[in-house]
């Protein structure tokens, strides 16, 4: 049996950071399970965040109006993407599991990691209109977010000042990872480690280590199946009328994003749901 590969895309400037410690725990725990673990340390690599014409070698298809998505798609098809992008795409291809390890900046990832997403997950390589969401290119791979917050957990509750963390995570987990087809595992959230005593930070890391031992046996998060939608421009990629009728009697929306004007399904973006599990759990 071929050795499994895990990729950790890591973004923190300081070797002594809690994020670095979380990365190291993941490397060790996965290696102990027989994984080959690759780490893309974006700051150490000086990975370029900006998506520009420098990402393409050779002539542009439309030099009069540069359109990054179209040009990089053609460059990927023709083997003309820059070497740093190609190297990261090879890592993605090899990995069964990808973990994004980062501190949350402005309710999202740091700019250098956003640049990795913009540049590496190119059209054609990571998605197309024919291959997206649960029909996506990476549907046989798993991915997850592991991140620290400056805010406390209560600040990211539905009645907290920052709002519901499930809403915050929807663009990254649905709009990026699930869009590319990944089976998205529940995020590992380290709440405000900078303001916790050493004993609490140590317990956080040990909890992460314990979770990693059974990580790939976890159920992924729940998203709306593509089959619920009319996948055509004529139909507007809208929820099918039959599905809307079926959902009318349900107490919650389908997902955090497909709420249908109803209450959000509890913990839709932070916990894998089962038929008998509707209670909120904030044990991340």
UniProtKB/TrEMBL annotation:
Biological process (GO), any one: response to oxidative stress
Keyword NADP: yes
Predominant subcellular localization, coarse grouping: cytoplasm
UniProt keyword terms in alphabetical order: Cytoplasm, FAD, Flavoprotein, Isopeptide bond, NAD, NADP, Oxidoreductase, Phosphoprotein, Ubl conjugation
Top EC group: oxidoreductase
Keyword Lipid metabolism: no
Catalytic activity: a quinone + NADH + H(+) = a quinol + NAD(+); menadione + NADH + H(+) = menadiol + NAD(+); ubiquinone-10 + NADH + H(+) = ubiquinol-10 + NAD(+); a quinone + NADPH + H(+) = a quinol + NADP(+)
Pfam families membership: Flavodoxin_2 (PF02525)
EC numbers for this chain: 1.6.5.2
GO molecular function: NADH dehydrogenase (quinone) (non-electrogenic) activity
Family assignment from sequence similarity: Belongs to the NAD(P)H dehydrogenase (quinone) family.
Name recorded for this polypeptide: NAD(P)H dehydrogenase [quinone] 1
Organism encoding this protein: Echeneis naucrates (Live sharksucker)
Gene it is expressed from: nqo1
